[in-house]
Amino acid sequence: MMDIPEELKEYFDDSSLLLVSAKDLKDYDFKDRDNKQLFSLIHDFFYNKEKDVTEILRPYMGENIRRITLLTVGVIVGAEQLIEYALEGEKEEIDMCEAVRRWEKKIAERERADKTYTFINNIIKSTGKHIEEACDMVGITVAEYEAAIATLSTVNTHK
Questions:
Q1: Backbone angles phi, psi at 117, to 5 degrees
Q2: Which of 53, 23, 83, 46 is nearest to 159 (CA)?
Q3: CA angle, corner 93, sides to 42 and 87, nearest 5?
Q4: pLDDT tens-digit profile of 103-159?
């Protein structure tokens, strides 16, 4: 313990501090459902950083998770998708089946958009054609190409 000068002691709290690692409490037998879900999700996100949100949340598909719990997990692990999803809507609890299906749909949209963007850009680079011509060659409109770009800028995975 450090010696604190008498004149500074009023500014320090001399109580004990117990430090725990939230990521390692998954198997602790919490009686409260919210606490159990909170620490379980933190653990799963921490130890599965290479996976996307849907893969991490798939085991929770039969559960409802309180919006505040999902928001807290999102803030702690830095998962913007969880934060955004928790802030949307007005329901107190989130049906994880619905959430996982929604994220799977967003990921599929992103993959389609990525293929469209990459394909058109490869045509432009290899042929020197303008966007309009490259889109015509593939059979899409410039608006569809721009929509793909917009999708890529708004849909993220947990990775």
A1: -60, -50
A2: 53
A3: 75
A4: 888 888 889 999 999 999 999 999 999 999 999 998 999 999 999 998 888 755 444
Beta bridge partners of 35: none
Tokens 């949340």 belong to residue: 57
| pLDDT for 157 | 46
- Under 8 Å CB-to-CB from 81, ≥6 apart: which residues? 53, 74, 103, 156, 157, 158
With a threshold of 0.85, does the pTM exceed it?
no
Taking CA atoms, 151 is separated from 8, 109, 139, 145, in Å, by 56, 7, 19, 10
Which structure tokens are listed for 74? Answer: 């999102």
Give the pLDDT confidence of 1-56 residue by residue, as tens digits: 567 788 887 877 777 777 778 888 888 888 999 999 999 999 999 999 888 888 99
